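Late entry, evening session. Most of the bench is empty. Finally got around to the prediction I had been postponing all week. Sequence below, unchanged from the version circulated by S.P.
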Amino acid sequence: MFELTIQTWLTVGFAGMALGTLPPLWQSRADPEHRTHYAILTAITAVAAVAYLGMRFGVGTVAVSGRPLYLLRYADWFVTTLLLMGYLWLLTNAGRAALARLLVFDALVIGFGVAAVLLPTPIRFAAFAAGGVAFLALVRELVVRLPALASFRPARRRATFEKLRNVTVVLWTLYPVVWLLGPAGLGLLQPATEVLVFVYLDVVAKGGFVVMAVNGLAGLTDGGDDRESATDDAEPVIAD
């Protein structure tokens, strides 16, 4: 019964991510100036869709201490979260050092998450705690350092960045909570329930991110803000 339910939710995840690829693909035709932005957004949901399709058919699924481990889930998270961080950085015009810090901290979060699943108790909880520290460092970069280094040109990019960043930080905070309650943590959630919650979070955190980002870029284009002076309402770039 649980296996059927898990497969159903994985199918829902695939459908949600596949639909999420359509807005950036469509809008890129009307706004070639932001082709790189749309390419990154398309890749986020496309990679997730492929991963969910693979998980639906059992590709990369192994048992660890009697618990299902979806290797494609962590591969998906590794690639898509790096793309998400890259997109947020792209909105800020910050330096390459800022991008490097985002990618390193993000990779550490996912890496420690994988270790927390593979390692035995109680070491896996130490890995989970290390991942939490890396996540706090990543949040600090997004909330404090990156905005300080940013030059939002045009100025309306600031609102788009802040909206996407805030949604990302809030939703990503829920992932470790689900892990802790799930089979790999305290075991308070059944595997099917864990998959259900992760699918919901993924669709909102990635598909929702992509839709909001597309709307943000469309607003810039429609409003003509890309023709604003580089000095209008923009913060100075602070060298890394």
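Two things to note before I forget:
The chain has a mean pLDDT of 89.
Residues 191-223 form the longest helix (33 residues).
Will write this up properly tomorrow.
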